[in-house]
Amino acid sequence: MKNLILIFVLAFISTGTFAQQSNIDKDLQMYIQLWDNITNKGQIDLINDKYFDAEITIPLEPEAVVGIDAFKEYYQNYLSGFSNISFTITQAFGHGDNIVKHWNFKGTHTGNFFGIPATGKQVDIDGVTLVKMKNGKIAREQDFVDNMTFLKQIGLVSDPNNIKVIDNLYKAFAEGDIPKVLEGMDPEIIWNEAEGNIYAKGNPYIGPEAILNGVFARIGAEHEYFNLQDVKLHEMNNNQILATLRYNAKVKQNGESYNAQAAHLWTLKNGKISAFQQYADTKQLNEALTAPYYAISNSKLYDLDSFSPEIEFMLKSSNVTIDEGDNLTVFFSISKDKKIQHVKVASEDKKIALLIAKKLKNRQLDGDKWREGKIYEHCVSYSPEDFVLYCGRNF
Known about the structure:
Elements: H1 2-40, E1 52-58, E2 65-66, H2 68-81, E3 82-95, E4 98-109, E5 122-134, E6 137-145, H3 147-154, H4 162-174, H5 178-183, E7 185-192, E8 205-206, H6 208-222, E9 223-236, E10 240-251, E11 257-269, E12 272-280, H7 282-290, E13 293-300, H8 308-317, E14 327-334, E15 340-347, H9 350-360, H10 384-391
Parallel strand pairs: 1-6, 7-12
Antiparallel strand pairs: 1-2, 3-4, 4-5, 5-6, 7-8, 9-10, 10-11, 11-12, 13-14, 14-15
Helix pairs in contact: 8-9
């Protein structure tokens, strides 16, 4: 008799356990299919009293989300805030009235998400949800996710390593290690010089090689030195770093120096620089880069073959005579487009000096021709102010 009772009890327990397992299996099947339809197919209206308990709850601080309407509104933020959604339940299991799911969410932030405007950023985040079932309906959901990673991906919190990346870039630039600077750039980096800067004509420079050839190489070729000073880095949202600094530089061609205020806005993606925008005092930069360079010719009149035909004509037309061998000093500057300007002429005869100066003013030069003989285009030791001392006359 005792054996019969024991068999009956075991059979009862076994039947109850089987029924419980059968219920959780049904709950799991319903649950997985339901969230696939809600998230991947956008069927938000499936959040209703057929599948959810009237008091469905999401535990949050400082206030929980309670009720079907509030629950539906909460998840509508995900469907409205993201496009190209892919929601995958990678694993789900249950026991009794409890379900545990491990999931992955992918999407592009293209809409309003809990009041956060679209950033266009892509997210790829894993999480775990603890679920409580009640009479075959979902009664409680509690998500566990790395919120800091999610906020970084959406662009609200920057990667803490961004400052280090940009700091290392400036250090490499200061050391002249341009290959290291280029290594820190994304292959598709978009680089823009400040509007009005002479280097902005190539905007946007796409890729490290374009930046090397269009910006770095030109700066190196056109400057005697180009230093970045007083660099201060400021961390910003959206994986951006703002650098405030000064350019301390000297132009090779004309000897002009400048110390200009500037700002660099860097954008980073996965530890690489994906975009750059320069802001600078372009007026000061351009004045230095396009300033004329000075050339001095100090010789006797009859030795200046390039001047002779025009000088002879001027002398004849003005009835001016000059003795062969009289000294003549010509001082002028040449603009970027190879035109003579800022002409100064020293001669024994002031009338001749003024006549030649007027004739040379704005004359278009053949660049190769004026690089010969006694014209020294890079002789910068004489400024317009120094000319008076140099030639001994003030014209």
